[in-house]
Automatic annotation (TrEMBL):
Any one GO molecular-function label of the UniProt entry: guanyl-nucleotide exchange factor activity
One Pfam family matching this protein: uDENN
UniProt lineage: Eukaryota, Metazoa, Chordata, Craniata, Vertebrata
Keywords of this entry: Guanine-nucleotide releasing factor
InterPro entries hit by this protein: cDENN_dom (IPR001194), dDENN_dom (IPR005112), DENN_Domain_GEFs (IPR051696), TPR_DENND3 (IPR057977), Tripartite_DENN (IPR037516), uDENN_dom (IPR005113), WD40/YVTN_repeat-like_dom_sf (IPR015943), WD40_repeat_dom_sf (IPR036322)
One GO CC annotation: cytoplasmic vesicle
Organism for this UniProt entry: Crocodylus porosus (Saltwater crocodile)
Keyword Nuclease tagged: no
Protein's UniProt name: DENN domain containing 3
A single GO BP: regulation of Rab protein signal transduction
C-alpha cells in the first residue's frame, strides 16, 4: 500500500548538527578564548521518515497515551554519548538512551552532502545566540527529478561544556544565575516532493517556537511529532482549492497548482525584482555554482573573460518586460499605507498572503508574456505531421541583433521540451495565451495556413517601426494565403502586439476556496491516526453534500481528496468510487496511474464487489483497456534537413511536408509529376535542393518588396504581393507586373513608383500568349482582356511570358471556381499552384520547364476539361463554403454539424459572444468556427479517437458530443476543453436530445446502438433513469409532446 500512495507533504525530516562530545570539546576551546576556532563538521544526527506508527500495534489508545516515550517510531538517531557524571549531577536524565536505529531512507534521497547544504557558511560556535535562519534547497538528480528542502537553523546554549537535554539545565541556570558560555547551531531540514517553500517555512517557524523554551520533552521528540504531522497532510489536487491547517501559532496554507500542467508556486516571485533592476533580471548569471552531492563540495566558478558574451534577450520583448515590471507595486508597506491596521495575527497573515498571491499572479503573467513574445513565431516553422522544426529558416526570420540569443536558446534542452509541447498541441499556459490573443486575422490565417507574405497593413506599419529599419530577410514557407477581408481589426505588428500586453495587464487572480484539515491528535498511534482520517472523510462528505451541483470544479477536488484519504485508510472501493466521480466533474485531475495501481492490488473479495457495481466495473474496464492500448508517445523532434538520397513518391511527399512548402498530398503528387518530366519517377537530391532554394529565394525577394504609400492605398489591407516580373514594356508604360491574391497591377517606374491596375482576376475575360514584331525579332507578349475596360493590356514579358500566361490563367480559373462555389479556399489553392509553377521553372532550367509547370495548372485544366455547372438554385441559395480540413494532409469527412447561437453566456467577454459552428471530423477531431465571420476559432481539438456521432448544446456552457467509443464528452464552451465524460453507455452513442421545461433545459436523453436509453440530470450529471428497448440498432431519438420517439435501423 505504501508504494501506491502518493507522497504527502513530508518525505523526510533530518536534524543536523554536531554530536555532544565534539560540541563539548569545542566549547572548552571557546571558553579558553582561542582567537580563531575552525568550523566544525556538521553531521546528520537524526532522520525521521514515515510511517510514524507501528503496523503491529495491539494495545489500546489509553496504554499508548501512558507510554508516550515508548511509542515505536521510524527514526534514525546517532548514538548519544552518556553525559559525564560531573556534568549531570542533580539532573533528572534518562540514562536508557537507545542506540542508533536502522531505517530505510528513500532511495532517491542522498544524505551524504546534506550537512554542508544545511550549513553553507560553515558551523561555528558563537558567544551569543543568533536569530533563527531559514534557507531553501532544490535537489536534482541526473534524470532531472527534483525534491525540495527547507532548512531552519537555530542555536542551543552550552553551559559548562554541556548541552542541556531537557528543561532542567535551563531551570538550573536561572536558579544559579550562571549565564551560558556559548551557543551551538543546529538545523532542521524538511525534504518534500513538492516545492512548498513558504508553507514549510511557516511550519518550521512554528517548530522553532516550541523548541526554544526547552521544556520537559527532548527536542527530538518535538521534531518527530512535527514530522509525523506533516506526513499526514496531503498535497491538494490542481485547481481552485487550497488546504489550511493549524500549526500553532500560525495557520498554514498549502496552495494547489493552477492546473495539472502548471507548477506549484509557493514562493515570493517578486524577490528578484527587489534585488535587481528589470534589465538585470533578463541577464544570465556571471558565475556557475557547482555542488558535488557525493563529496559535499560547494564551489563557485567565475566565467572566463575570454568566453563569448552572453547574448541579450530580443530587444522589443525586453522593452515590454521592463515597462511592465516598472508598473508593478513591489512594496507591501505602500499597500498598507491606505489600509486599516490589523488587530490580530491571522488577519495580518491573510492580508499579506492575498497581496503576495496577487503580485505572484502579475509576475507570472509578465514572465509568460515575455516568453510568448520571444517564441510566438516558432509555430510557423513546425510541421506537426512529421514533428519537424525548421530551425535554419526560423533563425533567418529573426532580427540580426536577436540571432545570437536564439542560436544559444535553440541548443538547450529547455527549448527542446518547449518544441515537444507545441508539437503535442499541449493546452498549457503558452497555448492558452496564444488562443486568447488571437485576432480575427489570425483565425483566418489558421484556416489557410496563415499568410506567408507581408500584407499591405504590415507593410504600412513597418515603415514606422524602428525594428524594421534594418533590412530583414523574412523567409517563411507555405504559400496557402487568405482572401477574406478581416472586419476592422487592429494593426498586427509582425513580432509583437501592444494590444496583447494591455490585455494581459488586466489579468486578475482566479478565486480559490479553502478547506480546513482536521486537527492531528497526539500521541500518533494507529487509533489516533484512524480518528484523524475519519474526521477528514466526514468533513469532506459534509462539504460535498452542501455544495451546489453546478460547482463541479470544487466537487472534483473534494472527491479527489476523499478518494485519497479513503485509499490511505485502505478503503479501496470507496476510493475508486470517488475517483470515478471525477469523470463527471473534472476528468483532467483523474489519477490514472494511481487507479491502475489500486486495481492491481485489489483483493479478490473486493474485486468481486467492484464487479457487482456497474460504475466501478466500467471504471476498472476502462483503465485496464487503456493500459493495454497505451503505446509510447512519439515525442521526438527533428530539425529539417535536405535529403541526401533519391526519393520515390512517398518519400518525396514526406520531405515536402517537412519543408513546410505545402501539406496537401494531391498537390504534392502533381508537383512530383512536374519535377520528374522526362526522367524516371524519382527525384534526386540536387533537384530537390534547387527547388527548395529557389522557393526560399523567391520568398526572400518578395519579402523585401517595399511599396510606397501611394501604391498601398489602392490595395486592400490584407493583400500580399506574391510575384513581381522583371521591368517590362507594357501598353500602360514601363514597370513591373505585380500579382496579389486578388489582382494584377503595374508598378510603374520613373521618378516616383506609381500604381496602375491591370485587372482583378474576377474581371478577366481572356488571356493570350502571342508575339509582336520588333525589327526582325518576334517578342513574346502577354495579352489580358478585361470586362470593365475596352483597351487590351499587353506586356512584352519575353522569356517570362509563358510562365506568366500559365499563372494568370490558373488564378483566373481558381477565382471563377471560388466565386461559383462560394469557397475562398479555391483561390488560395490556385495561388499555391502558381507559386509552385514558378519554383519548378526556376529549379529545372530546361526546355521542358513550361510543360512541367503546366502539370500544376489544376484549376485551368478543370475549367477546360470538366466544366462544373452549378445549378441556379444552388448558386442562389449557397452563401458561403468552408473547409474544416484545411491544414490537414488530406480531406476529412464531416460527420456531425452543430450551430450554437451567439451570446452563450452574458458573463463571457464581449469578444467571445459570437455564434459558433461545430464540425465533427474523423478520429474524434472537432473544429469550431466563428459563424459570423466563418473564421476558425478552435483548430481541431480531440475527444477520444473514435468517430463522433452526435452533438447538442445541452445548456449555455455545455456541448455534449456522443462517440462510437460509447462515451459522451462534455465540452465547456468557455474554455473550449473537455473536462467531463459520461461513461454509462455500453455501445455506440447514437443520439442526444434535450428536454426543456419553461424554456430551461431540465433533462437530457441519450441512446446507444444496443437499445439503451438514459435520462440524465443536466445539473448533477447523475442518471435519472435507464431503460432498455427490446431492439438493437437504435439510431436516433426525438422528443415530441412529452413523448420520446425512438428509431432503429432495419
Amino acid at each position: 500500500m505504501e508504494d501506491v500512495l502518493p507522497a504527502g507533504l513530508l518525505e523526510l525530516c533530518a536534524l543536523v548538527g554536531v554530536p555532544r562530545e565534539r560540541a563539548r570539546e569545542a566549547s572548552q576551546g571557546f571558553q579558553k578564548k582561542v582567537r580563531s576556532l575552525p568550523p566544525l563538521d556538521p553531521e546528520v544526527l537524526s532522520v525521521f521518515v514515515p510511517p510514524f506508527t507501528s503496523k503491529d500495534e495491539s494495545q489500546s489508545t489509553t496504554t499508548y497515551c501512558n507510554n508516550v516515550n515508548k511509542t515505536k517510531r521510524r527514526s534514525f538517531r546517532k548514538k548519544k554519548e552518556r553525559p559525564k557524571a560531573e556534568n549531570v549531577k542533580g539532573l533528572n536524565v534518562d540514562h536508557r538512551v537507545p542506540d542508533t536505529e536502522d531505517i530505510s531512507v528513500p532511495k532517491d534521497i542522498d544524505l551524504v552532502g546534506l550537512p554542508e547544504l544545511c550549513f553553507p557558511g560553515g558551523l561555528y560556535i558563537s558567544s551569543e545566540s543568533k536569530e533563527d535562519h531559514i534557507h531553501f534547497l532544490v535537489f536534482t538528480d541526473v534524470c532531472g527529478n527534483r525534491t525540495y528542502g527547507v532548512v531552519a537553523q537555530y542555536y542551543q546554549p552550552i553551559q559548562d561544556g554541556c548541552i542541556p537535554a531537557n528543561g532542567q539545565a535551563h531551570w538550573e541556570s536561572v536558579q544559579t544565575g550562571k549565564a551560558f558560555a556559548c551557543f551551538v547551531p543546529f538545523a532542521v531540514c524538511v525534504i518534500s516532493r513538492y516545492p512548498y517553500f513558504n508553507a514549510l517555512k511557516d511550519c518550521l517557524s512554528c517548530l522553532l517556537v516550541h523548541l526554544r523554551p526547552f521544556k520537559d520533552i527532548d527536542a527530538e521528540d518535538h521534531i518527530k511529532e512535527f514530522a509525523a504531522k506533516l506526513f499526514l497532510i496531503p498535497s491538494p489536487p490542481p485547481g481552485p482549492l487550497h488546504l489550511i491547517f493549524n500549526m500553532k501559532p500560525l495557520q498554514i496554507i498549502i496552495p494547489s497548482r493552477e492546473d495539472p500542467d502548471s507548477p506549484i508556486i509557493d514562493l515570493d516571485l517578486h524577490l528578484p525584482l527587489l534585488c535587481f533592476k528589470p534589465k538585470q533580471v533578463l541577464q544570465e548569471a556571471e558565475d556557475l555554482i557547482l555542488i558535488n552531492i557525493n563529496n559535499g563540495d560547494i564551489t563557485s566558478s567565475k566565467l572566463s573573460e575570454r568566453e563569448t558574451e552572453i547574448p541579450d534577450v530580443p530587444l522589443e520583448a525586453a522593452e515590454i518586460f521592463v515597462k511592465r515590471v516598472q508598473s508593478l507595486q513591489l512594496h507591501y508597506d505602500l499597500e498598507l499605507c491606505h489600509l486599516t491596521s490589523g488587530i490580530n495575527l491571522s488577519e495580518l497573515q491573510m492580508r499579506r498572503r492575498a497581496w503576495h498571491q496577487k503580485l505572484n499572479t502579475e509576475v507570472q503573467q509578465i514572465t509568460l508574456q515575455l516568453i510568448f513574445n520571444i517564441f510566438r513565431e516558432v509555430k510557423d516553422h513546425l510541421n506537426y505531421e512529421h514533428r519537424v522544426f525548421n530551425s535554419e529558416e526560423f533563425l533567418k526570420t529573426r532580427a540580426p541583433g536577436d540571432q545570437p540569443f536564439y542560436k544559444k536558446v535553440l541548443e538547450t534542452y529547455m527549448f527542446h521540451s518547449f518544441l515537444k509541447a507545441r508539437l503535442n498541441r499541449r493546452m498549457d499556459a503558452f497555448a492558452r495565451l496564444e488562443l486568447s490573443t488571437q485576432t480575427e486575422e489570425d483565425r483566418l490565417n489558421l484556416m489557410l495556413d496563415s499568410p506567408r507574405r507581408p500584407t499591405m497593413e504590415k507593410m504600412a506599419s513597418k515603415r514606422f517601426n524602428p525594428q524594421y529599419m534594418i533590412s530583414r530577410r523574412m523567409v517563411i514557407s507555405m504559400p496557402n494565403l487568405q482572401d477574406i477581408k478581416p472586419q476592422g481589426n487592429p494593426i498586427k505588428n509582425s513580432s509583437l502586439r501592444r494590444a496583447e500586453t494591455e490585455r494581459a495587464r488586466k489579468f486578475s487572480p482566479k478565486s480559490v476556496s479553502m478547506f480546513r484539515i482536521p486537527e492531528v491528535h497526539f500521541p500518533l498511534v494507529s487509533q489516533c491516526v484512524h480518528s484523524y482520517y475519519t474526521d477528514f472523510i466526514n468533513h469532506l462528505s459534509r462539504t460535498i453534500s452542501n455544495l451546489p451541483p453546478d460547482d463541479s470544479a470544487l466537487l472534483a477536488r473534494y472527491f479527489y481528496l476523499r478518494g485519497l484519504i479513503s485509499l490511505t485508510e485502505g478503503k479501496l472501493l470507496n476510493a475508486l468510487s470517488d475517483f470515478q466521480n471525477l469523470y463527471k466533474t473534472d476528468i483532467r485531475i483523474f489519477p490514472t496511474d494511481l487507479v491502475r495501481k489500486m486495481i492491481e492490488i485489489l483483493p479478490p473479495s473486493e474485486r468481486s464487489q467492484a464487479d457487482r457495481k456497474p460504475e466501478l466495473k466500467r471504471l476498472i474496464s476502462q483503465v485496464t483497456e487503456k493500459q493495454r492500448e497505451m503505446t509510447k508517445v512519439d515525442d521526438h523532434v527533428k530539425n529539417f534537413e535536405l535529403p541526401k538520397t533519391h526519393m520515390q513518391l512517398d518519400d518525396f511527399v514526406k520531405r515536402i511536408q517537412e519543408s513546410g512548402i505545402v501539406k496537401d498530398i494531391e498537390t504534392i503528387h502533381r508537383l512530383f509529376d512536374a519535377l520528374t518530366v522526362g526522367h524516371q519517377k524519382q527525384i534526386d537530391p540536387e533537384t530537390f535542393r534547387d527547388f527548395y532554394n529557389y522557393w526560399k529565394e523567391t520568398e526572400a525577394e518578395v519579402q523585401e518588396v517595399n511599396l510606397p504609400p501611394t501604391v498601398i492605398e489602392y490595395l486592400d489591407k490584407n493583400e500580399c504581393v506574391y510575384k513581381l516580373s522583371c521591368s517590362v514594356k507594357t501598353t500602360y508604360g514601363v514597370g513591373k507586373i505585380a500579382m496579389t491574391q486578388k489582382r494584377l497591377f503595374l508598378l510603374t517606374e520613373g521618378g516616383r513608383p506609381g500604381y496602375i491596375e491591370i485587372s482583378t482576376f474576377r474581371d478577366i475575360e481572356e488571356v493570350k500568349s502571342t508575339t509582336v514584331a520588333f525589327l526582325v525579332l518576334r517578342i513574346p507578349t502577354l495579352r489580358i482582356k478585361t470586362v470593365s475596360k475596352k483597351d487590351i493590356f499587353e506586356a512584352n514579358l519575353k522569356t517570362e511570358c509563358d510562365l506568366w500566361h500559365l499563372m494568370v490563367k490558373e488564378m483566373w480559373a481558381g477565382k471563377k471556381m471560388s466565386d461559383d462555389h462560394k469557397d475562398p479556399h479555391y483561390i488560395h489553392q490556385a495561388l499555391t499552384n502558381v507559386l509552385l509553377m514558378d519554383a519548378v521553372v526556376g529549379a529545372l532550367q530546361s526546355s521542358k520547364t513550361i510543360y512541367a509547370a503546366s502539370k500544376l495548372a489544376y484549376f485551368d485544366k478543370m475549367k477546360n476539361e470538366v466544366p462544373m455547372m452549378i445549378p441556379k438554385t444552388t448558386s442562389e441559395t449557397l452563401k458561403h463554403k468552408i473547409n474544416p480540413s484545411v491544414g490537414e494532409t488530406f480531406p476529412q469527412a464531416v460527420n456531425v454539424l452543430l450551430y450554437t447561437p451567439g451570446h452563450l453566456d452574458p458573463a463571457e467577454k464581449p469578444g467571445d459572444t459570437f455564434p459558433k459552428l461545430w464540425c465533427a471530423l474523423n478520429e474524434g477531431k472537432v473544429a469550431v468556427f466563428d459563424a459570423s465571420t466563418w473564421s476558425i476559432q478552435q483548430h481541431c481539438f480531440k475527444v477520444g479517437s473514435s468517430k463522433l456521432t452526435c452533438m447538442v448544446m445541452v445548456e449555455q456552457s455545455q456541448v455534449w458530443i456522443g462517440s462510437q467509443d460509447s462515451i459522451i464528452y462534455i465540452i465547456n464552451t468557455h474554455s473550449m476543453s473537455c473536462n467531463k465524460q459520461l461513461n454509462d453507455h455500453r455501445s455506440d452513442v447514437m443520439d442526444i436530445v434535450v428536454e426543456q421545461r419553461n424554456s430551461i433545459p431540465s433533462q437530457a436523453y441519450s441512446c446507444s446502438l444496443d437499445g439503451t436509453v438514459i435520462a440524465w440530470n443536466i445539473s448533477t450529471l447523475k442518471v435519472n433513469d435507464i431503460f432498455q428497448l427490446p431492439c438493437q440498432n437504435l439510431t436516433s431519438i426525438k422528443l415530441h409532446n412529452d413523448w420520446l420517439w425512438c428509431c432503429k435501423f432495419f
